Amino acid sequence: MHVKGELNMDEPEIPGRLDDAAVNGLDGKTYLTGTNTELAETRQREEQYRALSETVPVGIVQINEAGTIVFSNPLFKAYCGRDGAEEAGEELLAKFCDAYAGFPGVPCKFETEFVVPGSSTRSVIVISSGWRATGSGKPSAIVSVVDVSEMTELRRINEDVRRLNRELADNMKRLKAAQDELVNKGRMEQLGQLTATIAHELRNPLGAVRTSAYLLERKVKDKGLGVESQLERINKGIVRCDNIITQLLDFSRTKQLNCQAADLDSWLGHIVEEEAKRLPSVLAITCSLGLAGREAPFDPSRLQRAIVNLLNNASEALVGQGDDPAKFTNPEPQLSISTYIKDGGVVIEVADNGPGIPTDVMTRIREPLFTTKSFGTGLGVPEIEQIAMQHGGRLDIHSNPGNGASFAVWLPLAKIDAAAEKAA
Amino acid sequence: MPRKLRILVVDDDAENADSLAELFGMDEHQVIVAYDGQQAIDAFAANDVDVGFFDVMMPRKNGVESFNEIRKAHPAARIYFMTGYSSDDLLAEAMKGGALGVFSKPMDLQALLNTIEAEAA
Asked: Can you list the alpha helix ranges (DSSP code H) found in B9-108?
């Protein structure tokens, strides 16, 4: 057996295979030194790898520690442009170095983009084996460059489709809301016309009844007929009917608000003071107004309506009509009104220490015409919510059954801030 | 001693018109009643009316239309309106045209009698 100094250096693209030595065996075959691998078989494998490297849709490059390209397949060369010049390859690898710290020495996988000279931008996944010892003992790294431009494009299109779907869903939602609003507005206009007719038709006879009761009162005065309580009942009935009509008119009102910026605490304090005179005296009413003179935009007559409803509801939940202590839901009925800033708006909160709102009532409390009382229109809470929403706000209801309830009207400050900015 | 007034009450709702006429009559004011807008114009022309109380929504001619006509012939006519429910625009037109006030039905009778007393003073 002797060393055959015949090395295959004609195909430098796949180095390290036959760069040592081959020996002729006694059986007439040629073997690689120190192995039982037949040279012909190795050549066959070499051909297979060459064919693979030339046809695989992956750019492959082998690079040594000095940064020199030891091997590159045709696709990698194509990525480099300039007919696969070595400098072009090194420039491309330098770009990969910029894209990933540690490349190519550490095993890594990352996405990046580069422009093929004279061609288009490619999105690629770069995979490096990191420094690995080769047959010659010198470390080198095998780098694969997988073109995912089309996948990236597909992903982008997919994302676009998803975004458009989201936008479509949002638009559908907005359209539905607009349709609902339109239908609701139409219904409210119909309700408004109906209510106006009812108001006109009922208030005229109510007027005649009130005037007639007044005439009767004057005619029987000092005659000792004892009809005072009956007359009072008639008058109370007239007031109650008129209040119901007013509430229906207010609820069906679709007119624009007449908002003015004003010191909300000061205004509210005055309203509560007036209303407290009307409410049962057994109620302990406390006010904690915390806006410190902050102005808010609101329609005074509409908001007053909401406040009156809030106070009436809390009062009725605590003491009913206020005339029978046996019906009080708390022997020490307390009603508190507070204001504070929250979420860029002002909150007017009315809380009571009554029985709270049962869960089944809570789910329906915002429905128009729903009521748990033996009297009333069932428009109180819906009207409060409607007024809050007309102001661009909302009504939050909290209840802990057995421990009272609170109703909080939140109104935005944005309008007045925008107006203030404009004025500035 | 407040003077006695000649009051024109106009309302297509006869119950209302007649009960008001009776109320004012109790205080010995002279009351003329009209049941629509045209009758109101005719009654105003035929009588030396001190003060009028006009309903708004009425057949033939509404209260504001008849008020406007009356004010052309009698610029100093003193007219109040009474309404169960009317459009805000119509009431605003009446107030702009010189109406003295608007009472909402069912009317606050004490406020109404105070107004009469002030007119008679």
From this structure: 14-26, 37-46, 63-73, 88-96
pLDDT tens track for A158-205: 999 999 999 999 999 998 888 888 887 777 778 788 888 888 889 999
**Total-model pTM:** 0.57
More confident residue, A33 or A201: A201
Identify whether the C-beta of residue B55 lies closer than 8 Å to the C-beta of residue B85: no
Asked if residue A298 lies in contact with residue A391, where contact means CB atoms within 8 angstroms, the answer is: yes
Q: How many CB pairs under 8 A join A and B?
A: 62
CA atoms within a 13 Å half-sphere pointing along the CA-CB vector of A373: 19
* B9 neighbourhood in chain A, CB within 8 Å: none
Nearest to A192 by CA among A28, A391, A339, A386: A386
CA distances from A227 to A4, A213, A232, A233 (A): 140, 11, 9, 10
CB of B104 less than 8 A from some CB of A: yes
Rounded to 10 deg, the angle between the A149-220 and B109-120 helix axes is: 60
3-state secondary structure of A261: strand
